[in-house]
Write a structure and sequence with these properties.
α1 (5-24) packs across α3 (54-70), α2 packs antiparallel against α3 and α2 packs parallel to α10. The longest helix is centred in the middle third of the chain and has 27 residues, at 125-151. The chain has a two-stranded antiparallel ribbon. The chain has a single domain (5-235), classed as Arp2/3 complex 21 kDa subunit ARPC3 (Orthogonal Bundle). It is mainly alpha-helical. β1 (27-30) and β2 (33-39) form a beta hairpin. It has helices at residues 5-24, 44-52, 54-70, 86-98, 102-116, 125-151, 162-185, 188-194, 199-207, 212-235; strands at residues 27-30, 33-39.
Length: 250
């Protein structure tokens, strides 16, 4: 990715859009941890990956998330700092899949899942396997959805199926967002150092609501698909969109 004047301008515009959305969109507090806010504007990161491509989209999402965290109302709250990489990972993976680099995206996602298995809340895994199951069941589904999403992309490119295609991409991207959040929260520096929680409490928090967060990711993906379907049609062929062949291209 070359940071041309146009790319710098696009990054600034989309980062500013992210910050504005952070001011006007509601957030959902994490179950039993009100300090963690699930920001609904983070769903826009999936669209950044579609329009700007994986790398510029990830950069714009990161700058936007960083600005949103730095300025009021977040004002550099330590509780939000560990999760700054969630939106850029969403944009990165969505863009990698859409622009024919899905193997890289699949590998990144798989590594995040594997890394979670070695965190203190899961170890020793033969005793705490239920934590891994509660956290990862939906992430594994999203990981495996990459394969049919790529294989059947052309079949899903008609007008009737296109919203479902963008829904799948956004769902995968938002699940990667959540996967990073779980991995970050499962590190002692975060759950012990920032939140002051013992590992037993972290295990409980991971298993107390295994269905709530997937429901939130589905909602985010639905909203993203509603936005992406007409938007991608409108910007196709313009200087705004990443100029590379995607999995819908002939």
């Amino acid at each position: 990715m070359r940071l041309s004047t146009k790319n710098v301008a696009l990054t600034a515009v989309f980062a500013a859009l992210y910050y504005v959305l952070s001011l006007i969109t509601p957030f959902i507090p994490a179950v039993a941890i009100p300090e963690i806010k699930i920001s609904l504007e983070a769903l826009i990161a999936s669209i950044y990956g579609l329009i700007l491509g994986p790398y510029l989209g990830a950069l714009a999402a990161f700058v936007g998330a960083l600005v949103s965290w730095s300025l009021p109302p977040e004002s550099m709250s330590p509780y939000g700092m560990p999760f700054l990489l969630s939106p850029p990972l969403n944009a990165l993976l969505t863009g990698l899949i859409f622009y024919r680099r899905w193997r890289i995206g699949f590998s990144i996602y798989a590594l995040l899942i594997i890394a979670f298995l070695f965190t203190p809340p899961v170890q020793p895994i033969h005793e705490n396997f239920y934590v891994a199951v509660a956290v990862l069941w939906d992430k594994l589904i999203a990981l495996l959805l990459i394969l049919p999403c790529v294989k059947f992309a052309k079949r899903l490119s008609n007008l009737k199926s296109l919203p479902f295609f963008y829904f799948l991409l956004a769902f995968i991207g938002n699940q990667v967002d959540n996967m990073w959040g779980c991995l970050a929260f499962a590190t002692p520096l975060v759950y012990g150092g920032i939140f002051g929680l013992p590992v037993e409490t972290v295990r409980f928090l991971f298993i107390v609501s295994p269905l709530v967060y997937p429901a939130i990711r589905i909602l985010q993906a639905i909203i993203a698909s509603v936005i992406a379907t007409p938007l991608m049609k409108a910007v196709a062929g313009t200087p705004w969109v990443f100029q590379e062949k995607n999995i819908l291209s002939p």
